[in-house]
Amino acid sequence: MRNLELYSIVSHPHFKIVCAPVSQSLAVNDKIYILFEATQHSQCLISYNCATEDLNSTEFIDGVYTNMEYLPFEDMVFLTTKNELVFLDGDVNLVKRIILDGEEDIIHAKWNGHQDVLAIFFECNKVSLYLVNVIEELAVSISSTNLDDEPIEHIDVGWGGTHKYKRAEEVPSTYVCDNQEPVIDWKGNGDLFAINYFDGEERIIKIYNKSCELLYSSKGIQSGLEPLLAFKPVGNVIACVTSSDGQDQRLMIIEKNCMLLSMIPLEEGAKVQKLLWSPCGTCITVQLKRHDQVWIDIYLIHNCHYSLKQRLPLDQAKTFVDYKIKPMLSGIFNLELHYNYGYYEYTFLRKFIRSNIMKFDYGLNVNVEGSTLKCYYFASGLSSSNDEAHYIHEHTCPINGVVFSDDSYKLIYIDSESIVYIYDYTDRYNWDLLYTVQLPKSTEHIPLNAYRLYMPNDTKLCVVCFSEEMEDALHTYNLTTVEPTCVISTTKKNIIGVSTIMDKKLEFYSKDINKMPIHQFFNVQINGSYHLLYMTVDGGLFIDHERVKEKISSLFVHSNRLTVTVINNELDMVSTDNVYGVYLTAEVIQTLKEGGSFEDISYKRPVEQGSVVLNTIEKSATTILLLPRGNIESIELRNIALFIVRDKLLDHKYIDALHYIKRQSLRIDLLVDLSPSHFFTNKVSIFRVLDLCASLNKFFVEIKNESSLNEKEMKLLGVESQLENKVVKVAESFEDVYLRLQEPEKHLMTYALAAYFTDRNIVETMTKVSKICNTLTSIRPADIVNAIEVISNHVDKKELYEASLFTFDLHLAELVASKSQMDPCVYRPFIQRVTAMDEFEMRFTICYEIGRFKEALFYYFQMYREESITGEEMILFATESELLSELYNMVDVSDDIFEEVGMLYYEILMNDQNYLEAGILANRLQRYVEAVTAMLQGYHWQEALTVIDAGVLTPEQSLVLYRTVANTMTAHRDYVDAANVLVNHCTDYDAAMQCYISAKEFELALRLSIRMNRPNFHPMIEDSMVIECQNLCSRTQELSEKFTKYYERLKVVRQKMKAEAEAEPLHDTSNIEFSDVMSVTTAASTISTRSSNRSNRSMTRRLKKEQKKYTTLKENSRYEDIALLYNLSILVDDVKEIQKAVNEMYCTIQLRNLDIPDVVTACELIDELIKHIDKYSPDIWREEFAAYEPKEEDKGVYSNLVHLDHKYRMKPELKVSSKERATIIFLKRR
User: Fold this and answer.
1) What are 419's strand-pairing partners?
2) Which end of the chain is less crowded, N or C, counting CB atoms within 10 A of the terminal residue's CB?
3) ∠687-692-696 over CA atoms, to 5°?
4) Which residue ranges does the record assign to the ELP1 first N-terminal beta-propeller domain (predicted)?
C-alpha cells in the first residue's frame, strides 16, 4: 500500500569528465571512478571528487583490467588482470600488486561485505576463496571448489518443503544466453555467495557457503538465465533475470535453494543492464535499455509482492555513468544518478496516498503498481480486499506520482512520460476522466522534473518543477485550454507542499523549514486559524515547525482527528475540535511547543508493533491500520465510540445506540453509565427498545456494579460520578416498568433475573415471581419454566426449591422441583399432603419442612389461637426449637401460657447470664424475689432497690431483701453505699459503722456516732484511726528508702552508660522522630499492629512482654535507666496518694480534737519525703527529657528515652502540704 513519492531533487554539476565509452564505473560517497578505453591498447581509470572537483587518473597499458570494486574499509579501489590483484588508493595511485602464481586466468572476482574474503572465478571453472593481506602482498587460498561438483543432499519438510515456493508461475525456457561471463555476488553477512555461470549447455546458479561447499544448484529448476545476479543484503533471496526467447526478459526472485518466489514481467523488448538492492532490502532497482532509451525501474517489496513504483527515464546522450542507492533512514529511498558532467540526488519517500475528504463515510487509498492504479475503499469496521479494489484503466507507461485534490474531489496522477491525468472521484463507482495534460520536459531532460501537483480550483492545475537555478518554479495551467498561463517564481527551493488557505492565496512549504526530510504534512484549521502539522522521517511530530512529539511511525489528519502511531506499540488520537472531550486549542498547542505532553489530550490504544495508520473513517471510531505482515485491519477507538454512543442516547436514538454497542463489542450497560439520569428518566423507552431488539436478557446478564468507564473517560464524557448499587437500581427500575412492556409475559425470565439482582434474596425473588404469575393470567407454564432455569444459574437448586415452597404457591413449587431433577417420589407426596391441610397448618408444615422454624412458630401460634393445638404443645415446640424468646414476644398477658412461657424464658436468661433482662422479666411476671435475686447476681443493685422500693412486698420480705442488697455490696467492697442501705433501710448502725471503718471513712463514722448518739463507737473509731496513722508512717518510710535506692542506682547506671558512650559512640539518634504515642505502653502497640493477623491472646502476651522489657528492674539490663525512671514515677504517684490520706486524717483529728500523736509523725514523714524528692528531681527528670533534646555529649547516655512515655519523662509536681491542711481545716470549720 505504500508508494514512492519524489521529495526532492538536488543537482551537483561539474565539468565533463570523459567522452570515451565507459567499461566500468563506481559512485562512492563524493567520488566517481570511471574505467574506460583510452586507446586501442590501453585503459584509463579516473577519480573525480565531486566536492573538491579534484580529478586524478591512471593509465594502464600492461593488460586488461576488470572487476573494479571499491573497498570502503581500506579506502582503496580494487581491480584484477589475468593473474594479478591490483589495489589503488582513493586518488587512483597504485598501492600494491599481488600476483597469483600457478593459477589459471582470473575471469571474475568479488569481495564479501566484510572485505575479509575474496571469491575468484578462474578460467578452469574453479572457484577459490582467498584471504588477502595488502600490506604484505600476500593472498592465501583458504578453500576452493570445482563447479562440476554435485550439491549436498537436503531433506526439506514442512515449511522447508518445495511446496512453499509455488508463489509464481514458472515459464519453461529453451533460450540460452550467448554471454558466457560468470557473475559472483555475496550475501550481506558473508555466509553465502552465489555464482551465475555457463556450464557449456546453459547458465546455472549455484549457492555456496563460506567453506566453498555447494549447497544448491538451479540446474533442472530454472532456465533461460541472463548473466545478472544480486543477492539481497538481508535474507536468503536472490534476484536474477530470465528470458524465454531472448527478447522479453523477466525479473526472477528465487530463494537460496533456487526455488522460484516471484516472477516480474519487464518492459517488452528491454534488456536489463543492472540489478541493485537497497541496503535495507525493501526495494530493488532494475536498469533497463531498449534501443537508445535507458531507464531505471524502482520496485517496492511488501509481503513478497513486488510493485513497480517509479520509472526514471535517463538521457543516454549525457553519457550516463552509474547510479547507486545511499543508506538512509527508514521510509526514505535515496538514489544518485551519475553522469559524466555531474550527478543528481533524488530523494523518495515511502508513504501512503490517501484522500483527506470529509464528505464520504469511507476512506480512500490508492496504490501504484506500474501502469495500474488501484483504489481501495475502507468502510466503517472493515477494509476492502484486493478483489474489491476499484481499478483505473491500464496505461502504456508506469505511473510515477498521485495526488488527491480534496478541495475539488479530484485525483491527479502523472506518469513517467510527464502526462497528467485528472479524475473526478465524487461518484464512488463511476470515476470520470476530466483532463489529460502533457507537461513539457525541462531543457536539461531531468527525470521526474515535475514533482508537485496541485489544483486550487476546478479549472486550474499548478505544477512545481525542478530547476537548475536556486529557485523552483510554479507552472499554472488552464485546464479548459490545456495551456500554461503563467510561471511563478516561488522564492523557495525543493517545495514539499502547496496549499490554499484563507482567500485562495497560494502558500508554499519548502523542505528547508526543517533539516530532516518531511514525510507527511497537513494544513489544519484549529479554532479558526490554520496550523501546519507534519512528520519528519526520524519520527518527529511538528506543529508550526516546533517539535512536539518523538518516536512516531505514522501521521494522518482526517476530519477532526489527528491520528499517530507511536513506535512503542501505541496509537494516539487527538481531536482538532471540541467533539471528543479534549482537543487541540491555541493554549494546548503552545503548551506542546514548550515541552508539554500529549498524555492529557490524547486517546491511547495498544496496537501491534510496526503498525501504521492507513486511513480513518468520517463520523466513525474506525481506524484502518497496515500491519507489518502486510495485512490490513480495522480497529475501533474506544473513546470515540463512547462519544458516538452518548450522542445517540441523548438524541433518543436508542436503537442506533444499541446496534452500535453490539457492533463495537462494548458493554451493554453503557446505556446506564454514559448518563444515569437520562437512563432513569427514559427507562420505559429504553427498556422497550431492549425488548424490541431482543436484548433484555443480555442486558441483565452482562450488567455489573462496576462502571464500564474508567476515571479519565468519565471526566471526558462529563459523567459526574459512578452510580452506586447500579445493578440494584436498574433492576428496581425494570420491576417498575415491567407491566408497561408490550407482552410482559414474554419477559418473565428477565423479570425474575431483575428481581434476584435487586437484593440477591431468592425468597423475595420467588415471592415476586409467584405474585406476577398470579397477576398475569396469560403467562404460560413454559414462561415460568424459563424463569426458573435462569434463576437456577445463580442459586443452588435445593435452595431454589425451598424458596418456592416458602411462597406457599404449590404449583410453582412443583414446577421448580420437576426442573431441579428432584425425585418425584419425594416431593409429590409431600405437596399432595400439604394441599389437603388448612392454611395455617399447611404453612406451618412447609416452614417446618424447609427448616424455617421462626416462621413455623408464627403459624403454629396462629393454630394455638384457633385452638387447633394446646398450650402444652405450643410450649413444647418452642422449647425444642429454642424459640422461647420469640414465643414470649408473641404471647399476651391474657394468654393462659403467658406466665409459664415467661418463667421458662427467665431461666434461659439466667443461664445466659443476662441478669438484668431476667430481673426485668421476673418483675413483669410479679416474681419480685426472683427479680431482685437476678439483678443482684449481675450487681445491678440500683435496679434491685427500685423493685424493693415499689412497695409491693411485705415489710419482712423487704427487710430481708435490703440486707441481701447490703451484703452483696459489702462483698463487692462498696462499703459506703452498703452503709447507707444499712442505715436508711435496715437501721443496723453497728454493721454500718463497720462498713465506714472498713472503707477508712473515719469522718463519716464519727458523724454517724454523733447523729445516732452512740458514744460507745468512739473508742473503736479512735483505735482504728491510730492503726491507720501507724500504717501511713510505715508506708512513708518504705517509700523513702525505695526512692533513695532507686536514685543511687540511677546515678550509677548513667555514669556507666556515659563511660560506654565515650569509649564506643552509639549511633546518632538525633534523627529519631519521637512521638508521645511511642511509649512504654504504646511502643509495643506498633508491634501488635504488624502482627494483626495473629490471635488477640498472642498479641496480648507479646505486648506484655514488650512492656515488661522497659519496666522491669533487672540489674545491668539494657533498659535499666528508663526502668528506674518509670518506677520512680510510679513511686511519686504512691507518695501523692499517701499525702492525700495523711492530710484527710490530720484534718479529721484536728476538727474532732482527738488525741492521736501518730498523725503528727505521719505529717512530718511525708513532708520530709516530699522535700527529699523535690531536691533530686531536677537531676532525675531533666528539663531536656520532655522534648527529648539532650545535650550532644549526652545523646549516647539517654538513647533509651525514646522507649519511655512522655509522662514518665516529666518532672512530677509535689508540694509540702502544711498550708493545704490548714486551708482544709479552715474551710471545714466555716
Assistant:
1) 438
2) C
3) 50
4) 43-319
